[in-house]
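ARCHIVE CARD
Drawer: 12
Card no.: 0347
Subject: one protein chain, sequence and derived structure
Cross-reference: see card 0346
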Amino acid sequence: MTKEIFDLAGRSAFVTGAASGLGFAMTEAMVESGAAVCLADVDANNLDKAVDHFRRQSNQVEGVELDVRDPAKIKQVVKAYADRQGRLDVMFANAGITGGAPISQPDGAIETIDLDVWRNVLDVNLTGVFATLQAAAAVMKPQRSGRIIATASIAGMRTSNVSGYAYSSTKAAVIQIVKLAAAELAQYDIRVNGIAPGPFLTNIAGGRMFTDPARRDFMAQGTALKRVADPKELKGLVTLLASDAASFITGQVIAIDGGALVIT
């Protein structure tokens, strides 16, 4: 029984920001659990590599180049994938960027924030996530089922001098969107949840955040476990939220942060 409730065979999933980092780990979790997966990413080169990688494990994998700043394109590709699969069971609204210096740096001070950078971060991290949820809801409502998982951050749950205004603001807003969508979509048997990662080894900020050993150690010391996580450590949580094991979980944003929130 325990094994069966985590089984995703016969289900379809869509992952934005899937070509690297957390999105890659989400895709890996879905493939290993038996789901068909569409990988979406703005980076065409990395997307092709990721699709080739997963096709060695499953013939139920496809990819689509997608910029989440284009709501019309999101709606189009999500509906097309759902039509090909006959349904859409799981949506990961994961694509995101950093955008700007932290408040501890001169370029991150409130009076120096570049509003073009601010708007771009909002377009990707907030409007892009919201448009992804819209597209998922449009196909899940008629089928009266589905799972939606949005990537927030512990930066949206606390203040920190290693975070910037735009990033933290968008992640806090994603948390509220998750709760509102969960309240609305429950009547359609659609569960909406979020994950709030702490420090993970990803390519966000071009991978610069962890190339400096001193920077990596600083981030590790901000967790109770005193280390930075491998993206693979996300797989258990996302499989849970995508599966029947989470049949009574909705409207939650779950921190996966090595205990960062309990010590700061």
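Annotation on reverse: The longest strand covers residues 190-197. The mean pLDDT is 94.
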